[in-house]
Amino acid sequence: MVNIILFGAPGAGKGTQALLLAEKFELTHLSTGEMLRNEIDSGSWLGQQAKSIITRGELVSDELVIDMIGDQITRHPHAKGFIFDGFPRTQVQARELDRLLQEKNMQITALIELEVDTNELTCRLLKRGESSGRSDDSSIEVIKKRIEVYNRQTASIIGYYQTQNKYFPVNGLGSIKDISERLNKQVRHFLP
Ligand code: AMP
Questions:
Q1: How far is the CA of 59 from the centre of ligand 1 (A)?
Q2: What is the pTM (predicted TM-score) of this model?
Q3: Which of 17, 137, 160, 174 sits in a 20 to 30 Å window from 120, CA-based?
C-alpha cells in the first residue's frame, strides 16, 4: 500500500496531478479543498461556516478537516492506497493524519512536493481564476494571502516528513505531461 501526500503551494498543480496519479496507480484521491467546495455548493451548515474563511484565503479549522479526512479514510476500507491533496496543511494536521492511519495499521509512504516559484504560482492562480469561478482565485490580494498563509503555516510541515526520510521534492515546472512523468517515476520507487 502506498499513501502519498501531494504537497505544494496554492497553484502548484496538486489537484491536476493528484487526479492523474490516482488513476495511474489506482489510489483513492482525497482533496480537502474539493470536499469543502462540495459542502459550500450543497449549502450545508458546514459549507456556510467554511465559505467566508476560504474566500478570505485563510485556513479552516484543523478539527474540521481532520474530521473530514478521518471520515473518508473509514469510508474506503478497501483502498489500495490514498493520495492526499491539500492535506495536511499544519503541524497538527500532520500528526493527526499519522494517528488516523496508525489506527488502521497504515502509514504515510512519502510527501512529494511540487516545487514552483512564487511568480509562476501567482500567474497560474490568476489564470485559473478566469475560468474556475473559484472565489479564492479571483483577486490578487486573496492569492497573495493564500501564498503567505502557505509560507507561514504550511511549508514547515516539510520538516516533519524530512526527519522521517519521507520528503521528496519534484520540479513542478513544465507541461502537465512532463510533470506527470516525473511524479510517476517517483511513485514507482515506492511500489513493492
Ligand atoms: P485547495 O483547493 O486545497 O487550494 O483548498 C481551498 C481552500 O480550502 C484553502 O485555501 C483553505 O481555505 C481550505 N482548505 C483546504 N484544505 C485545507 C486544510 N487541510 N486545512 C485548512 N484549510 C483547508
A1: 6
A2: 0.97
A3: 160
Looking at 76-191, list the stretches that DSSP marks H as alpha helix, in order from N- to C-terminal side: 91-102, 118-132, 140-149, 157-162, 176-188
Closest ligand 1 atom to 85 CA: 3
Instruction: Give 159-180 pLDDT, tens digit per residue.
Output: 999 999 999 999 999 999 999 9
HSE-CB of 177 using CA atoms within 13 angstroms: 0
Domain annotation for the chain: domains and CATH numbers: 2-181 (3.40.50.300)
> Distance (Å, rounded) from C-alpha 94 to C-alpha 92?
5
Q: What is the pLDDT of residues 78-123, one digit of tens each?
A: 999 999 999 999 999 999 999 999 999 999 999 999 999 999 999 9
